[in-house]
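Input (structure):
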C-alpha cells in the first residue's frame, strides 16, 4: 500500500460525486474466510468456497497470502507477507485477482522483492503497469527460431556452446565452481548491447545478494538490470515466486520488442522450496520427495522464454537457469528434468576447477542444441576447426597419463592442445568482445601462436585483443584480412618467438 496519499485532484472529486449520485443501498454478498491454522509460511483457511487457484487473499491483520491448494472445505495458502498478529481466527477476504508485479522501464537499476516492493531504499517504483506472475507462455504461432547470437563474453561459451537470443541454456555444476560467476559475466557483457537483464536471486545468503548487486553496480550493469531477491530467510512463498517475478518483468519488455536476459540463480533452491511447500500442504511426495508436478513447474517457467517473431514485436527472452549438482551427479532428479527442458547446458567440472582451469567448463559435456544456428558464420567456422584440435588433444592426453612412449607426430597436437587450454582460461568479470574472440581464433588456427611459451600466453593475448579493438576489424571482414592483420602484428612484436 502506498503510504503517501496522492493530492486530491479535481478529477477525483468529480468521480467521487458521481459515485455518491449512483450509490444504491442494498445487500452485498461477499465471502469471508477464517484462518484455521498457520505456520511455516502456510495458512489453512476455511470458508472461501469460490476462491480460485493463485488468487491473492487479504488477511485482517495486514498479511497477504496466495491460494496454493484447493481442498474441499479447506484451502491451503502460501503467505506472501505476515505480521506478528497473524493467528488462527484471523478473517480472510479474497482480493479477486491473481498475483501480479509492477513492470516497466522504471525497474531497471532497481532491487525488488518478488511482489515488486523496492529493497534498495530508493523511492517507490515508477512502473508502466502490472504483469501476472504466472502468465501463459507465448503461442507457437508467435514464436520465431532462435537465430541471433547473445554473447556472454566467455570464450568457451561464445565459441563452443554458443547461445542465441531466446534460448534457454542451463548452467549446471557443484556449488562453488563459478556458476553464478558465469551468469553475472553474461549480464555484464550485455553493456551497450541493448539487452535488458533480470537477475533473480532465489534463497541466497544475504552476503551473496549484496555481493552480486555490488558487482553489477561496479561494472555498470545495474543500470540495465533489475535484481529480484528472495533471500534464504524470506518466506518460502516468496522464494517460490521469485523466478516467476523475474520472468514477468522480462516478459513485459519482451512483449514490447526488447531483447532480455534472465538469470535464475538457482532453480535447485527453487525446487527445494516447492518441495517444502508441497509437503507442508500434504501433497503426496514422489521421487526424492519432490511433488510430481515439479517438472511442469519448471517447464512452465522456462517455456515463457522465447524469441517472438516480427509480427509480435521481435522481442526475446534468453534464460540462464542455474542448477546445483551433488558431486557432479547430473543424473539426479532436478538436474535431469532441467537438462531435458532446456536447449543445452554448460557443465562445470570440479576437477577442472581444482586444476586451475577457469571457467571450469567441461567442453565434452557441454552442449548448445540450437545456438549454432545463431552463431556468426565466421566464428562458427573458426571455432569448428579449433574444437577438432581440442578434442583430438583430449584423446591424446589420456595416453600421456599412462607414460606411453609417444610418437614424434603426436608432439605437435599435444603442444597445440596445451596452448589452447592456456588460451581458454579466462578470469571472471573480464568478458571478451566477439571481435577479440575472432582475433585469437584466427591466430590459433593459423598456427601463429604455436611457438609461444605457455607462460607468455596471457600477455600476448592481452595485447592481441587491444590490437584487434584498435584495428576496427569486424566479423564481416574477409578471413584473409583478419589473418594478414594478425600475422603482421605478431611479426612486428616478435612476441610469438620463444
Ligand atoms: N573464471 C574464474 N576465474 C577465477 N575464479 C573464478 C572464476 N569463476 C569463478 N571463480 C571463483 O569461484 C568461486 C565460486 O564462484 P561462484 O560463482 O560463487 O560459484 P557457484 O555460484 O557455482 O556456487 C568464487 O570465489 C569465484 O571468484
Ligand atoms: Mg552461486
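Output (sequence):
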Amino acid at each position: 500500500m502506498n503510504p503517501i496519499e496522492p493530492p486530491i485532484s479535481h478529477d477525483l472529486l468529480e468521480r467521487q460525486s458521481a459515485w455518491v449520485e449512483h450509490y444504491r443501498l442494498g445487500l452485498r454478498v461477499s465471502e469471508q474466510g477464517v484462518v484455521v491454522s498457520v505456520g511455516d509460511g502456510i495458512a489453512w483457511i476455511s470458508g472461501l468456497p469460490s476462491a480460485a487457484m493463485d488468487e491473492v487473499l487479504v488477511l485482517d491483520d495486514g498479511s497477504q497470502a496466495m491460494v496454493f491448494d484447493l481442498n474441499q472445505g479447506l484451502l491451503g495458502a502460501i503467505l506472501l507477507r505476515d505480521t506478528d498478529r497473524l493467528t488462527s481466527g484471523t478473517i480472510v477476504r479474497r482480493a479477486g485477482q491473481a498475483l501480479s508485479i509492477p513492470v516497466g522501464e522504471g525497474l531497471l537499476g532497481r532491487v525488488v522483492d518478488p511482489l515488486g516492493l523496492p529493497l534498495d531504499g530508493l523511492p517507490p517504483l515508477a512502473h508502466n503497469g502490472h504483469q501476472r506472475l504466472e502468465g501463459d507462455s507465448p503461442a507457437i504461432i508467435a514464436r520465431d527460431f532462435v537465430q541471433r547470437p547473445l554473447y556472454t563474453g566467455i570464450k568457451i561459451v561464445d565459441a563452443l556452446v554458443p547461445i542465441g537470443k531466446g534460448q534457454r541454456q542451463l548452467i549446471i555444476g557443484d556449488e562453488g565452481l563459478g556458476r553464478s560467476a558465469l551468469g553475472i559475466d553474461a549480464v555484464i557483457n550485455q553493456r551497450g548491447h541493448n539487452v535488458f537483464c533480470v537477475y533473480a536471486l532465489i534463497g541466497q545468503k544475504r552476503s551473496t545478494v549484496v555481493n552480486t548487486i555490488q558487482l553489477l553496480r561496479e561494472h555498470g550493469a545495474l543500470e540495465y538490470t533489475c535484481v529480484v531477491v528472495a533471500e534464504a530467510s524470506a518466506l518460502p512463498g516468496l522464494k517460490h515466486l521469485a523466478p516467476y517475478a523475474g520472468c514477468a518483468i522480462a516478459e513485459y519488455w519482451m512483449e514490447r520488442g526488447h531483447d532480455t536476459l534472465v538469470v535464475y540463480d538457482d532453480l535447485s533452491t527453487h525446487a527445494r522450496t516447492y518441495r517444502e511447500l508441497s509437503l507442508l500442504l500434504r501433497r503426496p511426495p514422489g521421487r526424492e520427495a519432490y511433488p510430481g508436478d515439479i517438472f511442469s513447474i519448471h517447464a512452465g517457467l522456462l517455456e515463457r522464454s522465447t524469441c517472438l517473431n516480427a509480427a509480435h514485436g521481435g522481442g526475446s527472452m534468453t534464460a540462464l537457469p542455474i542448477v546445483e549438482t551433488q558431486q557432479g551427479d547430473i543424473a539426479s532428479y532436478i538436474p535431469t528434468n532441467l537438462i531435458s527442458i532446456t536447449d543445452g547446458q554448460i557443465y562445470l567440472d570440479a576437477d577442472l576447477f581444482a586444476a586451475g582451469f577457469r571457467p571450469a567448463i567441461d567442453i565434452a559435456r557441454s552442449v548448445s542444441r540450437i545456438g549454432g544456428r545463431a552463431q556468426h558464420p565466421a566464428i562458427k567456422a573458426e571455432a569448428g576447426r579449433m574444437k577438432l584440435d581440442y578434442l583430438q588433444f583430449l584423446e591424446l592426453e589420456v595416453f600421456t597419463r599412462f607414460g606411453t612412449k609417444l610418437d614424434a607426430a603426436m608432439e605437435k597436437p599435444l603442444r597445440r592442445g596445451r596452448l589452447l587450454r592456456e588460451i581458454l582460461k579466462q578470469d571472471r568479470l573480464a568478458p571478451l568482445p566477439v571481435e577479440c574472440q575472432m582475433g585469437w581464433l584466427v591466430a590459433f588456427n593459423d598456427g601463429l601462436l604455436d611457438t609461444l611459451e605457455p607462460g607468455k600466453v596471457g600477455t600476448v593475448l592481452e595485447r592481441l585483443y587491444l590490437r584487434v579493438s584498435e584495428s576496427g576489424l569486424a566479423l564481416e571482414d574477409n578471413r584473409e584480412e583478419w589473418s594478414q592483420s594478425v600475422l603482421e602484428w605478431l611479426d612486428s612484436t616478435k612476441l610469438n618467438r620463444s
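Notes: The chain has a mean pLDDT of 93. The radius of gyration is 27 Å.
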